[in-house]
């Protein structure tokens, strides 16, 4: 039986504010489903490494496509062979489940 909590099978829900950010306990529980992400006060972050600029940019474009599809967009810092991805839900100035859904989907993209 598939794990019903698998974040990659979920879709982001629109967030226009008016809801509280996740509690530290909720965020820590969702962090258990991610690999290599760092939890900060109001965001999650991970740096992905590549063998060259072409692969880095292919990843950035894939993240852009996924972000557009989910309508939830990260901040990215891009260099020759690295891309740092940061998620937070700006409308609530903190973390929502959407951040973890997108992070899990990016991890899946990175593996293929």
TrEMBL record:
One Gene Ontology term from the biological process aspect of the record: tetrahydrobiopterin biosynthetic process
Any one GO MF annotation of this record: 4-alpha-hydroxytetrahydrobiopterin dehydratase activity
Record-listed E.C. numbers: 4.2.1.96
CDD domains: PCD_DCoH_subfamily_a
Pfam families per record: Pterin_4a
Presence of keyword Lyase: yes
Catalytic activity field: (4aS,6R)-4a-hydroxy-L-erythro-5,6,7,8-tetrahydrobiopterin = (6R)-L-erythro-6,7-dihydrobiopterin + H2O
Enzyme class: lyase
Record keywords, A-Z: Lyase
Cross-referenced SUPFAM superfamilies: PCD-like
Membership in a protein family: Belongs to the pterin-4-alpha-carbinolamine dehydratase family.
Name of protein: Putative pterin-4-alpha-carbinolamine dehydratase
């Amino acid at each position: 039986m598939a794990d019903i909590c698998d974040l990659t099978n979920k879709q982001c829900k629109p967030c226009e504010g008016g809801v509280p950010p996740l509690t530290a306990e909720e965020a820590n529980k969702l962090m258990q489903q991610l690999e290599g992400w760092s939890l900060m006060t109001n965001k999650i972050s991970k740096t992905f490494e590549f063998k060259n600029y072409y692969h880095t940019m292919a990843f950035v474009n894939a993240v852009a496509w996924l972000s557009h599809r989910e309508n939830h967009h990260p901040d990215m810092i891009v260099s020759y062979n690295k891309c740092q991805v940061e998620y937070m839900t700006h409308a609530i100035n903190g973390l929502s489940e959407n951040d973890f859904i997108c992070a899990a989907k990016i991890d899946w993209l990175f593996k293929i």
